[in-house]
What does this fold into?
Amino acid sequence: MPLSDHEQKMLEQMEQALAAEDPKFASQMQGSSLASMQRRRWLIGAVGIVLGLALVLVGVNTTMWVGAIGFAVMVTAAVFAATPPRRAALGVVRGDGSTAPHPSGGRKKGQKSFMDRLDDRWEKRQNNW
It folds into this structure.
């Protein structure tokens, strides 16, 4: 149910008062943008790569297993930095306040699964021989 005009004005006034009273908190409540999340992932990935490289160098001087763990840390950090951040799954809020998954998500009614389509193609190919 949408807010009335009066409620919207009150909400805007409260937001402005909060921003004036504590601008740092208000900026944190606005949420982070996609670019800042990606920057954070790159930073964490870079730190992980440096840490993994350090473990590889320590592993050269000590045992092979430390070096292998360092290499695994480096690869994991690189993959973490290279992959985009996940987006939150959006849902629909019903009139009673409960939530439901977005109607466009998932498989459509009557659409076969991937394995069913592969089976159909295999059977069609076998019948043509």
